[in-house]
Specification:
alpha+beta, two-stranded antiparallel sheet, single chain
Length: 577
């Protein structure tokens, strides 16, 4: 039988990364749960074997249930019935299968009914589910919202809500509004405290809410009357059992049809404050969004895998001019680049997840006791790395998912344009990934300070010092040259006094950064597992070398007055004689 985990040994490779030892030690508190919970591991190997078993189950469900259901879900989609969202029938089957398999509350502590898994294996399940159906991954992965409630809610709220999510109840994060998309400071959903009801009441409209009719919502609302910016916003927990929220509309989207995107109307909906007032956007949404962006990186990687699978299978089967089209250089060039982008996406996804795991585990330990000076330094180091890597992981992986979906159709030729072939659905599903949870342009904004202050350059130089296999020495030398060009390009951009120039050139610096980091991650992967990654490393370095050199030449020859060519939206009108 097919299995989306065991069929892809590259995933298990990342499960056995050297940093997993530290991650598991921290997550398991040196295996202190073993005396209280029968399923708790006793050592590292026991923990890794447990992750492996659950991933195997997820891989089987993805291949045998979710993927076969994906076409039906895409055609049916969710329905609006009397102000309520109703999932497609096969989506209900998917949910039943994942709940029955225990794939909920994956990262939550065992005392609340969770599996106490790190973010790394959780992200692997997310990738696997996305390879089967990216739309369903949205519904399943929103359980990650419980991380924010766990981090910032009180113990009463943890005990009330976390077990419900572990048992299979769904979640959503209700952030955007008709007039507040990327600019969440403009959120105006009103929260007022009712002395009579002894709770907060929410009134207003939310739009573009993924899985918007979920059981438990985290809601960004304006709690401070008279405010207009982010300092007046707080985070609230809305329980669907309380009533007060209806679904006014389900969006008809280009792709991810199984994932309901709702417009919600709040009318005196009872809610609880999560954490402290006025920190909703400043602190809590930032935590939510970073988790969501890592989730989209996993979703994008899963879709890249699916697109590569479709293109490879078709190229092997389709014959033209007397031979399979996979034998033509134009086709195997596309496939090789697709696989290289897939492996690079996976590498930065799990490196980022590892950084998140370490700093979040230390944050959690801090709630129980004071950290040692060494632990505080470790916490600071990995929190900074996670913050730097997250916009690269989200932006680069989502762009690669779009490119791989595009190439899958191209390999299919005219057949790829026909609705009966899966590649067209992957293409439609991929398009949103570089838009939601922060567009690629916003990922550039998030990353640019780490470019201009030298953080990424320092990380890259440190990565270049790592020991690599002798057979990759020539590739490493080329990466050193690219790094020198990147440093020079950064200096050129920062020398401009014009902020518009900085913003205009930022995307090119971002892509140089992302491809360099991903190349060096692949270099490390290939050093540890040459049988898995040698080909992708060679293809990826050659591919990004051409792209990075193009960006370098553009920046090197750029002058501030060149912006005028891009600002002109209309052709110049010749002066009248």
């Amino acid at each position: 039988m097919a299995n989306f985990y065991t069929d892809n040994p590259e995933i298990k490779f990342h499960l056995n990364h050297p940093l997993m030892k530290r991650i598991v030690e921290l997550k398991e508190r040196n295996y202190s749960d073993k005396d209280s919970f029968a399923d708790a591991p006793v050592d590292l190997q026991d923990a890794l074997a447990n992750y492996d078993r659950v991933l195997d189950i997820a891989g089987e469900i993805a291949a045998e249930i979710i993927e076969p259901n994906s076409e039906s879900v895409d055609l049916e989609g969710p329905h609006l019935v009397d102000g309520r969202m109703v999932y497609a029938e096969k989506t209900k089957e998917n949910l039943e299968a994942t709940i029955k398999a225990g794939l909920n509350g994956v990262s939550m502590p065992r005392r609340y009914g969770g599996l106490n898994f790190p973010i790394v294996p959780y992200s692997m399940i997310s990738e696997i589910i996305s390879a089967a159906d990216a739309g369903f991954q949205n519904i399943w992965s929103l359980q990650d919202c419980i991380e924010t409630l766990y981090e910032f809610g009180n113990e009463e709220q943890r005990q009330k809500y976390i077990p419900r999510v572990c048992e299979g109840e769904t979640m959503s994060m209700d952030l955007t509004e008709p007039d507040a998309g990327s600019d969440l400071q403009r959120v105006m959903l009103k929260a007022t405290y009712s002395e009579e009801d002894g709770c907060w009441l929410l009134n207003g409209v939310k739009r573009f809410i993924t899985n918007g009719d979920s059981d438990i919502h985290l809601v960004l609302a304006r709690s401070e009357e008279g405010t207009q910016d982010g300092r007046g916003l707080s985070m609230f927990i809305y329980d669907k059992r309380q009533g007060g929220v209806t679904v006014r509309h389900i969006e008809h989207k280009l792709g991810i049809h199984g994932s309901p995107t709702c417009e919600l109307v709040y009318k005196n909906a009872k809610a609880e404050l999560c954490g402290d007032r006025k920190l909703g956007l400043i602190k809590y949404v930032m935590a939510l969004m970073n988790g969501a962006r890592l989730g989209i990186s996993a979703q994008s990687t899963g879709l890249s895998q699916a697109a590569y699978n479709e293109g490879l299978a078709y190229a092997k089967d389709r014959k033209q001019f007397g031979k399979a089209i996979i034998e033509f250089p134009a086709v195997y060039d596309m496939l090789a680049r697709m696989k290289a982008k897939l492996d690079a996406s996976r590498s930065i996804l799990y490196q980022t997840a590892r950084y998140v795991d370490i700093y979040k585990a230390l944050d959690d330990i801090r709630r129980e006791r004071d950290l040692t000076p060494e632990e505080r330094a470790e916490n600071k180091k990995y929190a900074r790395l996670a913050d730097a890597f997250t916009p690269l992981a989200k932006g680069m992986a989502s762009e690669y998912a779009n490119q791989n979906a595009y190439d899958a159709i191209q390999i299919h030729g005219g057949s790829g344009f026909i609705m009966e072939y899966k590649s067209q659905r992957l293409y439609r599903d991929a398009r949103i990934m570089s838009i939601y949870e922060g567009t690629t342009q916003l990922q550039v904004v998030a990353a640019i300070r780490y470019i201009t202050n030298g953080t990424y350059l320092s990380i890259i130089r440190e990565m270049l010092e790592a020991e690599t296999a002798p057979q990759f020495a020539e590739l490493k030398a080329r990466l050193v040259k690219l790094t020198d060009n990147f440093e020079q390009a950064t200096n050129i951009v920062t020398a401009f006094a014009d902020k518009d120039v900085h913003d205009f050139l930022a995307r090119r610096l971002y892509e140089m950064t992302g491809t360099l980091v991903m190349s060096l991650l692949l270099l490390d992967d290939a050093t540890r597992a040459p049988e898995l990654f040698t080909k992708s490393l060679n293809v990826y370095v050659r591919m990004v070398e051409a792209e990075a050199n193009g960006h370098f030449e553009f920046i090197k020859n750029f002058k501030a007055e060149d912006l005028a060519y891009y600002r002109a939206l209309q052709p110049e009108t010749p002066a009248e004689e």
